[in-house]
Amino acid sequence: MKKLCVLLLLSISLFATAREYTFLPEDIPAMKQLLGSGNLQAGDAIVLKDGTYNNLGEIHFTGKGVFGKPITWRAENPGRAIISGKLRLKIYGEHLQLKDLLFYKAWAIGHDMIDFQKEKGVYASYCRMTGCVIDECNDPGKGMRPNEGDEYWVGLRGMNNRIDHCYFANKRVGGLILQVWLSADNHLNNHLIDHNFFGERQPYGGNGAEIIRIGHSWSSQLESRTIVENNVFFRCSGENEIISVKSCHNVLRRNLFYESAGGLVCRHGHYNVIESNTFIGHNLRGTAGIRIINQGHTVYDNYIKDVESFGLLVRVGVYERPTAETNVKEEPLTSYHRVENVDIAYNTFLNSSLELGSGRGEKMPRNVRFAHNLFTGQSPELKIVRADEVLPGFVFLDNQWAFPDANSLSAVSYEQVRSGFEAVDTPVGLGQKEKERIDACIYAVGPAWYEAMKENVSYIDTYR
For labelling, which of 27, 81, 192, 433 has a CA lying 20 to 30 Å from the CA of 334? Predict the structure, then answer.
């Protein structure tokens, strides 16, 4: 009993010390000193009064909160504390929270504007960025085309961190919105990226303008276990990969891709789950669905409508899956590896093409199950490259073929495909299914206080 009382008193003492520190824009030096001191305690809050906090430079946010009592750096009034100008924000420690801040016309000193680490080996864990906005954050000294400089907005490192209910839009210079970094000593990330609104990203004209990338080619055989769910990608058209997955055992589910020129791409890595995502392209140039490379993926219950490039693309490989014995100088990790042991089931492809076997290489897909999918629309777009070599790697089972031309299925040249589909009438209820999926995304994302996001949501609701 005595030991229990001592523990209770220690717990009460710990939480009773929580303090709130308030700062004005003229207090930047004192604020920076406190945030980086390491003296903040669980439950402490650093509160920014209304105003513009300009050119913070390099600033560290560190400390050790506890579950249920994070150390929070927040705006007193959401969106009215504006951070702009030169910035290198380093977040590291445990249970830290960045909340309701507006990063507007800020830009990175160096590479990552917001970085979840101090240095190699000193990372963030159980930290959260929530209700924040990053808008129009572009280094004025860099151009908007390839080879004119780049910067990343958020570099996510460490373990068990979360980015949620944020708004990101109007990135113009090169580089990513959000990079999940992996390394040999820090790759089981278990990050959660959810309920964010990723707004307009205009075409960049080259590689390196993804919205989210999980890993890199050199770390692609490592597990990240990052979850990306319930986000909206609205006119995210920087390049042909909106989300580029370059690691293993990630889950991407219930996201909405709306009028975005690009697709969800399993570029490197294995055993990723692509589930219950919705793609609405309105036949705009470059809009796409899902591209599959590598092995062990599950592609389940996705709804892909009116995309111009492809609804589903399964690529041929150049090399086999890398092993510990692979000479990566001869078989580089940046290349394409064989598609194998992939399950594609219960998806809807509406006025969107199926493309099997595209790309250069001789490693044909192997053991790909295509089952219980609905292929429908005005007319079928089915492209099979080198069919005699590609089709033996597929099993078509209990799929539905729903097109106005009753003879369109029998006109398919390949018996293996014909026998794997049943010609049916277009199922009723697709419109309602689409509405429910869109509503579930657009009304649950982002910071409700940001006017630009509300305008984007209103557009989707009006012109869906």
Answer: 192
